[in-house]
Amino acid sequence: MQLDLSADVVTLTRQLVDTFSVSHHEQEIADAVEEALRTLPHLTVTRRGHTVVARTDLGRAERVVVAGHLDTVPLNDNLPSRLEDGVLHGLGTCDMKGGDAVMLKLAADLAEPNRDLTFIFYEAEEVDSVHNGLRKLTESDPDLLEADFAILMEPSNAAIEAGCQGTMRVDVRTTGERAHSARSWKGVNAIHRAAPVLARLNDYVAREPEIDGLTYHEGLNATGIRGGVAGNVVPDECVVEVNFRFAPDRSEADAEAYVRAFFDGFEVTVTDMAAGALPGLDRPAAKAFVDAVGGEPAPKFGWTDVAQFTKLGVPAVNFGPGDPMFAHKQDEHVPVEHVERCERILKEWLS
Amino acid sequence: MQLDLSADVVTLTRQLVDTFSVSHHEQEIADAVEEALRTLPHLTVTRRGHTVVARTDLGRAERVVVAGHLDTVPLNDNLPSRLEDGVLHGLGTCDMKGGDAVMLKLAADLAEPNRDLTFIFYEAEEVDSVHNGLRKLTESDPDLLEADFAILMEPSNAAIEAGCQGTMRVDVRTTGERAHSARSWKGVNAIHRAAPVLARLNDYVAREPEIDGLTYHEGLNATGIRGGVAGNVVPDECVVEVNFRFAPDRSEADAEAYVRAFFDGFEVTVTDMAAGALPGLDRPAAKAFVDAVGGEPAPKFGWTDVAQFTKLGVPAVNFGPGDPMFAHKQDEHVPVEHVERCERILKEWLS
């Protein structure tokens, strides 16, 4: 497959969509992207696995990273792409090959951008973070990620979604003593003991802090519950799986302390943790971008890879074509207007 | 295998124990029992599947059924039998080949009992009730079960345990609305909604009614709980599995009405129901047996096949060698003294 960077951004999106690239199968698309970028003399290209980085080096005062992942979730009878009434349908149209196509157009058409640019096309975002190409790059080549500002082209309705909330999972465990249910008074029922765990969750009042003018919204939810040995046994264990989504003004340590205090008196085990990302809209590079896009930035509630940049001290926002509500759906699609709008805004801002 | 009915009851127990008869593999043991019983001219023998019935027909004023199942739970490295310090160890010693051996001794030695006798050796008690040989007999040959009194030789420490409690299972279900846990306020968490279900179970106070001088003890317990779609989804369903053990003064309809009222406001589905059995110790035949055994009868908390007799209007008790706490255990065993005591008491009462 050969990409034609002189084609319009919608044609380019279709080419990318019709190149199968479910996670762990990114070789073909990464080869095509690398090959296309290597034809552009103003870019220095680096390949790591199926992650491709292309940089200008013009000695500009600022450097901006523009990043997008090349993989998709599994096929769901939604290929090849189909263009209908100004909407492009198909796997990866929304998440996030529309964004990737915009990146390719910027790379090809901006030989002399007003800020130095680093394009990162990366592998394996839709699977376990251990495979994530961007995360790997933060470890293998942190210098390639150095920048004053980063734009992650995840679908956000062609508007700015800033920062992201952190996510933490804990198991809240109650214990008891087994007994035959015909003589239940000889045991202690661990499921009954979980009543106050659920009662506290019912009483939870979400914090909605304002950060850089954006209103975040925390959430504390049981996402699973399990307990039981057999139909005639008083169970000796019950586990409530809880997911805490926390605003980016909390550190991981804060989040953990909060949850432990919330479930005081119960056994709490942290099973997963990913810090949030502050919007960073007070930074000069971010401010300029917000002005260029216009409109009101929104807070990002879900966790995204912008947090990887925050860890490196680089302010980052989500800005990409497509409605995130349709990501991972069978009827995934992206409005052509979104893709064109993102291309136009970024070109203007970077010219 | 050939059973020697002239041997003592312990030797006979060992012969039965060493004849493998895990549920659905009762042919060999049923053949041996049938063959041995057919040598006794005072008995009329009927075979149904691997269930064997033997009856005297002396025109006595009363008829007593003595029943025991021939199957065992699965082998657990606990065969062959081992006799040590007056205790017989091995699969089925307690549940319930000690009782079966007593039955065989009564059948062989009581050619002219003072009450007509019906011995029922039945298959498949330890598995789904659809296979239960005694239950099948209540449908195919109810006349074979006609009696004034029934003794089920289930392990009960060689003492009388009267009646049995009923058991009922229900699913208590809460529903909600799915949402991504990053925007949890857009959904309704079904697990959180289960809080009052568990709270009510915590507040439950067990009824302990006295029936025929025996104190029963009800119980209402969550034996399982499940809910959850994925780690990042607010779940739309939670199911609490509840087991109600009810005293035999409640009918099935009473039990269901009680549980539905208890969980008023929640969706309740009955998944299993087995009525209890009244002790029936006020009946003349039962009274005479209690006097013969001596000591105080105890209430039976767990459900047993005595309920099959109650359904037919026949008062029934559990009376057999072995401690029921060791039934289904790897270290199952029966004290020789229990087996001998049951044989002696029954022979005296029936001579």
UniProtKB/TrEMBL annotation, chains A, B:
Assigned EC number: 3.5.1.18
One Pfam assignment: Peptidase_M20
Location of the Peptidase M20 dimerisation domain: 166-263
Main EC class the enzyme belongs to: hydrolase
Alphabetic keyword roster: Hydrolase, Metal-binding
Listed GO MF terms: succinyl-diaminopimelate desuccinylase activity
Coiled-coil residues: none
Taxonomy, superkingdom: Bacteria
Family annotation (NCBIfam families): dapE-gram_pos (TIGR01900)
Identification of the protein by name: Succinyl-diaminopimelate desuccinylase
Species in which this protein is naturally found: Nocardioides zeicaulis
